[in-house]
Write a structure and sequence with these properties.
The protein is an all-alpha fold. It has one domain. 77% of the residues lie in helices and 0% in strands. The protein is built from four helices and no strands. α1 crosses α3. The chain is extended. The relative contact order is 0.11.
Length: 88
């Protein structure tokens, strides 16, 4: 959840400083798998915007509570989809 809330803050930084906002695990994976934390952050930001587009359209500006509720809804949907795959 913190990642979604902090995306605007992290994306506002210059590209060479975006990694400082990320956790140790992301920095470690970036080295291991040879990807740019800044590019990954931009990809996550776009995916988050896409996932929340309908909610933003309905509500206008999102509050932190709106983000938390939408993240929980998406997590519930993902859990249901994973359960359906296991049962299939």
């Amino acid at each position: 959840m913190n990642l979604i809330v902090n995306l605007p803050i992290a994306c506002a930084r210059p590209p060479h400083r975006r990694g400082t906002r990320l956790g140790q695990q992301v920095r470690r994976l970036a080295v291991e798998r040879e990807f740019s934390p800044g590019e990954a952050l931009e990809e996550v930001a776009q995916a988050s915007k896409d996932a929340l587009a309908d909610t933003v359209e309905k509500l206008g500006r999102l509050t932190r509570r709106d983000l938390e509720e939408e993240a929980q809804r998406l997590a519930d949907l993902r859990g249901a989809a994973e359960t359906a795959v296991v049962l299939a």
